[in-house]
Amino acid sequence: MPDLVELNFDGIVGPTHNYSGLSAGNLACVSHSGKVSNPRAAALEGLAKMQQLASLGIPQAVFPPQHRPHIAALRTRFTGGTDADVIERAYREDPALLARCSSASSMWAANSATVIPSTDTADGRLHLVPANLSAMFHRSIEAAGTTRILRAIFGDREHFCVHDPLPDGAEFADEGAANHSRLQTSLGSAHLFSFGRSQHEGERRPQLHPARQSRTASEAVVERCGVSAESALYWQQDPDGIDAGAFHTDVLAVGNLNFMFCHELAWASSQQRIAELRARLGPELQIRVVTQSELSASDAVKHYPFNSQLVSLPDRSMALIAPAECASKDSVRELFVRVLSEANPLSAVHYVDVHSSMNNGGGPACLRLRVLLTAAARAVLGGRLLFTNTLYQSLQDWVRKHYRDRLDIADLADPQLLIEGQTALDELSQLLALGSIYDFQMS
Length: 443
Ligand code: SUG
Fold this sequence. Notes:
Elements: E1 5-11, H1 27-31, H2 39-55, E2 60-63, H3 71-77, H4 83-93, H5 95-100, E3 113-116, E4 126-130, H6 137-140, H7 143-153, E5 160-162, E6 180-185, E7 188-195, H8 215-225, E8 232-236, H9 239-243, E9 253-256, E10 259-263, H10 270-281, E11 286-290, H11 297-303, E12 309-312, E13 318-323, H12 330-341, E14 346-352, H13 355-358, E15 368-373, H14 375-379, H15 389-402, H16 415-431, H17 439-442
Parallel strand pairs: 1-2, 4-5, 7-8, 10-11, 13-14
Antiparallel strand pairs: 1-15, 3-4, 6-7, 9-10, 12-13
Helix pairs in contact: 2-15, 3-4, 15-16
């Protein structure tokens, strides 16, 4: 089997990063609704995080943001006039729609696609299924742009296959890699797909918050990518976990190779499920389940310890890349100290400051799309996306040149914001050698 190395593609925070409180069930996002944002600081935080990982020897790449406001979506409702007219009318007549069309939510690259490495697919290519994000309108309008960007990066058909997103709507609602985890031991690999709801009658459902991912969507992803039926597992998110604010599984669980760190409310009947997984992958698999009494799910949702990245270091031990919010909570810090002292592959915890993203419910793990690549596949990636000191410097300069340091909801009505975004992203697509990836570059 060829050696696979993980490359993390981090979403660059877009110029319209704001707090519109668009995602019901995402408690941080709802509680920050209406606050003033600082897109420049948010984008620089994201870049500094990438730099921190790169300096630990962890392969890192960038994923470009989408252009907002999404003019085509606004024009579905407001058909005439210039772009500025459309924005102005939307602000007057349907400000909620303008907010939905202005979110910088494409930054959370974990939701951009499900990725299956070439070792685990029937045709030996790396497969990507862009997520339709059907559960929330402001996210569903990412799918077409994401598909285009993925095809610009993974365009080599000998090594890659970028599918179309699944059909829109509740039946196939798909949130991408946030609900997918791949584990591996010498006995093989297992793909864990988590869903919030299925066709199964009598299934317990969350009472307070939406269950976003459908089981049918995950089954379709498995089928399209040619993942063997034996290695795919479908686990229901615990409805109590969703009601505590874990809208995606990666809010309560993270796994890498033979180690998984999770909360007991990540999945329904978690003990039974975990026993099945252990039986499949054997004793090399280590799973650290945190109980409610050790750390409540609602504290886990407040501080996001499980939304850490669990990464392999060059010495093959693992590190947890945790949000800085974890360091300020005694019970979370103590949990990390305990887990570090136990027999498992974890050798370190590093904190990163992604405060602006956290305010919208996106921690370190949400910001990145993990792609396991062979050396040959890595050599044919499109664009110039690999994170180097030079790229870091150029991107910092680019953000400082183009991004505002203050944005409130009324600023979304400013047509100048659209122009600033076009100018910035046009320059970015050249910097990253991606060609024309934005609608405004095609017209
Ligand atoms: O879909 N927040 C995102 C956060 C996504 C986090 N991703 C993972 N867990 N993988 C969401 O709820 C808020 C945007 C706003 O209000 O403008 C938002 O979409």
